[in-house]
Amino acid sequence: MIKPAIICIRIASIIYFLIAVLLVVFGFFLKEDLLIFILYSVFILPMVFWCEITILGLKKTKYWAWVSSIIMFAIFIPSLFIIMGIIGIKTMLSEPVRNQFFGIKEQQSNMSNSIFINTDYKHVKKEEQSIEEYIESNAALKRYLDSSKEGKK
Question: 60-69: buried (b, 16+ CB within 10 Å) or exposed (e) per residue?
């Protein structure tokens, strides 16, 4: 369910890492501005760590990782990562993913909310049947009544 979001974050992490490495390499070619390119790289590397830590948290279904990914995708939307931001926000705000991270279990079927109606009418006392006959026919009730009689003695 959260696989598209994890893939988007992983792609962003790789792109951020490549940008950081390319800035340092490009800085070596322009020897006079090397310090500026290294500083840019240092400011980009925390994004890589943020992406990777968020991915680990999402795999463990941590609530903080869900919030972190929502913030991350919101940052992606007004940038070049707009496609990944939209895919990620759509994935993380979908109902199954929200239920997974908020601890809400999905209902198995529509029958889970309905009241169980026993259609086996053997337990209903017929008019001609006496109470003693009904107790004899219902073994569980008989065991309960016998145990309660022994408890009173």
Answer: eeeeebbebb
